[in-house]
Amino acid sequence: MNLLLINPNTTASMTRSMAEAARRVARPDTRITAVQPSFGPVSIEGHHDEVIAAAGVLEQVRAAGTSMDAVILACFGDPGLDAAREATEAPVLGIAEAAFHAASFVSTGFSVVTTLVRTCVIAEHLVLKYGYERRCRGVHGTNIPVLALEEDGGLACVPALEDACRAALARDRSGAIVLGCGGMASVSAELQRRLGVPVIDGVAAAVVLAEALVQLGLRTSKQGDYATPLPKRYLGWAGPLGW
Question: Are 134 and 230 in the same domain?
Answer without folding.
Answer: no
